[in-house]
Each structure stands twice: as structure tokens, then as C-alpha cells.
Design a protein that fits this description.
Blueprint: E1 5-18, E2 21-27, E3 39-43, E4 51-55, E5 65-71, H1 74-81, E6 88-95, E7 108-113, H2 117-130, E8 136-142, H3 151-160, E9 164-170, E10 182-183, H4 188-194, E11 202-207, H5 209-221, E12 229-233
């Protein structure tokens, strides 16, 4: 893969994912390549210093577009929220050692908190589109059911890929949510009950700092090998 380069790319669509989460679909020009899980630095055309890192939520196999997904939080996203289809952004990348490629033949355990789902979605989409043989288990934690980003898609992948399974867990359920699935934070019991091969699986963790630190510690305690745990910290 070539080294990081800069591209001026057009927004071709804006998708409302949840009440406070949007996906910006960006044109993908020929020659823009990346591994699932990697990120790009994004800035506005008239400002070279105001920039943020965004994992690509789409797959390298998705031709013609890149997806970046974010909450409305912080000054950068407030400005981004004002953008519309036809506007341009500057992308520089790809960057990051948090990625999957086809040389990785192990079972995959993808553990995300909040918007940490974005690079994990890229991995899932990639494996499904390439019909790879890796078993994939997604463990995804959010505060409320309406905060599950890509919910329908993440559920539908089970129909498309027999090697894929998932569990959602809600940390702040309320009676009005009418949620019948798992509740509570990711803990040792949830991990041990949902990971078939703790010793030999390859783990991808993405979410807020404390979420990633705590999950890594629990995995190691349960027998996961340090060198098989890849981690990415998500934040504004």
C-alpha cells in the first residue's frame, strides 16, 4: 500500500444513523486504498490546522465511496454538520496499525463501545464481501437501544455470512426502551460466554479509553494473548 497522500473529496450523501449520529458518504477516487480498520485525517479545504482522525466505516471493497460516521460533539463536528452533499473535504491517509488483512486467518472477536463500531463495521463488511472463512464475533456495547449505530446492517450480516454472530449489550436500559436483549457493561462473564477460542482468536477493541483498557485487562485475565489484541481509542 502506498504511503499517506492528500485528496480533495466531495460529499455525496449524508445519512442520519441515530438522533445524534451521522454518516458522511464521500466520493472515493481511483487509487485511494486502505485496509479495513484504518483511518484518515480529515479537514476543511480552507483550514490546514483544524483536523480530526476518522476511521473509515465502509469496506475497501465498497467501490466509489468512503463512509465516516460521528456524533455531534465538539467544534469540528459542529462545523461538519453544516456541510451538505456537494461540499468538499480534504482526506489525508490512510494511517494506523489497527487493521485487518487476509493474511489474518484466526477467528476474529470485534469488541466495540459507542462509535468504536466504525472500524469494526469496515472489517465485517470486508469479510462478508470477500466470503472469508474467519469466524467473526461482534460484541457491541452502547448506552441505549436507539444508540446502536448500523443496527439493521449488523443484524442482517448474520443472514449473509454464516461465520458471523453478534451480541448487543445496553448499559443504560429504561422501561420505555422495551429492550429484551442483554444489558450491562462488557464484563468477564459476557466475554467468556461469547468467545469460543480465547487463546487463539484475534481481538480488535475500539471505543473510549477506559472501555478499551478495561476490556483488554479482562481478556488477558481470561487467557487472551497480548500480542493478539489490537486496540484503537475512539474520541473527539
Amino acid at each position: 500500500m502506498e504511503k499517506a497522500s492528500e485528496h480533495k473529496l466531495k460529499i455525496i450523501g449524508v445519512i442520519d444513523e441515530t438522533h445524534d449520529t451521522k454518516t458522511f458518504r464521500i466520493e472515493r477516487l481511483p487509487g485511494i486504498d486502505f485496509f479495513p480498520g484504518q483511518f484518515f485525517m480529515v479537514r476543511f479545504p480552507n483550514d490546514e490546522t483544524f483536523k480530526r482522525a476518522y476511521s473509515i466505516a465502509s469496506s475497501p471493497t465498497d467501490k466509489g465511496f468512503l463512509d465516516i460516521t460521528m456524533n455531534l460533539i465538539g467544534e469540528f463536528t459542529k462545523k461538519l454538520w453544516e456541510c451538505k452533499a456537494g461540499d468538499y473535504l480534504i482526506f489525508t491517509g490512510p494511517y494506523g496499525k489497527f487493521f485487518f488483512n487476509e493474511d489474518m486467518k484466526q477467528d476474529l472477536v470485534l469488541i466495540g463501545g459507542g462509535l468504536g463500531i466504525t472500524p469494526l463495521r469496515s472489517i465485517i463488511r470486508y469479510c462478508a464481501s470477500k466470503n472469508l472463512s474467519n469466524k467473526i464475533k461482534l460484541i457491541y456495547s452502547v448506552k441505549t437501544p436507539d444508540a446502536i449505530v448500523f443496527k439493521d446492517e449488523l443484524e442482517d450480516f448474520k443472514e449473509k455470512n454464516s461465520n458471523y454472530d453478534f451480541v448487543f449489550t445496553i448499559t443504560r436500559p429504561e422501561p420505555e426502551h422495551d429492550w429484551n436483549g442483554k444489558t450491562g457493561r462488557v464484563d468477564e462473564k459476557l466475554l467468556s460466554n461469547n468467545i469460543e477460542d480465547m487463546e487463539n482468536s484475534l481481538f480488535f477493541l475500539c471505543g473510549p479509553l477506559e472501555f478499551v483498557k478495561d476490556t483488554r485487562a479482562m481478556l488477558e485475565k481470561l487467557g487472551a494473548k497480548k500480542e493478539r489484541i489490537k486496540a484503537d481509542i475512539w474520541g473527539e
